[in-house]
Amino acid sequence: xxxxxxxxxxxxxxxxxxxxxRDGFDGEVxxxxxxxxxxxxxxxxxxxxxxxxxCPDPRYREEETFAGDLDVELLLGTPASxxxxxxxxxxxxxxxxxxxxxxxxxxAHARTLPGTEGLEGVHTVRTLDDAIALRAALRGGTSRLxxxxxxxxxxxxxxxxxxxxxxxxxxxxxxxxxxxxxGERMGRALTHLHRRHGTEVHTGVAVEEVVSRDGRVxxxxxxxxxxxxxxxxxVGIGARPATDWLEGSGLTLDDGVVADETLAAxxxxxxxxxxxxxxxxxxTDVAPGTMRLEHWTSAAxxxxxxxxxxxxxxxxxxxxxxxxFWSDWYDGRVQFVGxxxxxxxxxxxxxxxxxGPFTAIYRAGGRIVGALAVDMPAEVMKYRRLxxxxxxxxxxxELAEQRRQQRxxxxxxxxxxxxxxx
Amino acid sequence: xxxxxDWDKCTGMGMCESLAxxxxxxxxxxxxxxxxxxxxxxxxxxxxxxxxxxPTEALSLEGPIDA
Lengths: 422, 67
Description:
The complex is a heterodimer. By secondary structure, chain A is α/β, with parallel strands linked by helices.
């Protein structure tokens, strides 16, 4: 192995080059990125980056780190346009880059509403440039914000909007937001959070037309004819894996690049991050097939793993993980571990009827496969370990009971202390 | 070897706890509890994993392993 090429210079790509250098790989390393920016931290872009008075520098590393410590050749600003797995080359602009091992970590593009291209006041939130533009738009005398899509990105932007004092409306096509991510009942529970914070939520509605005047968004017309006037329209209707450049490469493309359990998509070619679709052996018994995750933790993890496999395919072993994502809504945090599949959801702490705080766990095949917490940050990671160890549902209920007792004891001590100091 | 927490960066995401529960724990209010600062040899592997897994890069390691 002499040359590792990593296509995609976001988190997974960064972690790929860092992992092999940390392991002592002394071959050539090239990192290719479509954007001009150095790798940057994406989760804050729909959260504090929009909300804070001063925006923090989202870059993970300085440019010198790549040239120096990491000894990585950076090719930024031009996307890779083709892959030839037989010749082992990647085309970038007018350059052809040869590789011995390749990591594909090209991520995903934000989906847009057809017909809104170039319209002022319409935004997606995916890239740093997106966030810079939206940040300015939310401050420029805006009073009404409309968000299409009640997913996590849309919900976070709505939260920021409320924090900035805007009137916020969310439009969601599904009857229950986030049903696929957290299940029907929990999707309803999360929707309460919006209403509690003064965000209007319309579910089961179709956006018929985005109404504009002089090249600027004015309103959204719904299927039933209702018009919602708005200054800014944020489109948060998901992401589409960035695989266009791989058409005709011979790789299997199916909502992502399909790989085996070791993240291999072809000899010497491994995938990581939002673009990767692979069988996660931890869950194939209860949710057969492959999965694709758009989470920080899996991108970080898979980036390192894919690169290690790419430089030493003989060492490749199955990659399994308990998915984890978090989302900051209003003044609280939503956390989810595992998968939302299964036959039963049980609320083991708090109350979901009012949108929390609460913790719920998910059962499939007689074991715990998922956990959701709203504003109970001490809980989910304890369940994450059980899920990773394939523990039984009874074990999960036992942990829930233990936690209940621990919280009760803590509350009793706190009350006692308060009594003593009164 | 010692664990160093950048308390300004830590937001209690909890990845560290799920990988090294004897060392890290997130409290009910979301703050991080460090059960030990010194990392023993048998904890080293999981602590290194926990440090790498922190979404806010709030964790780092300092000093030699046998210190």
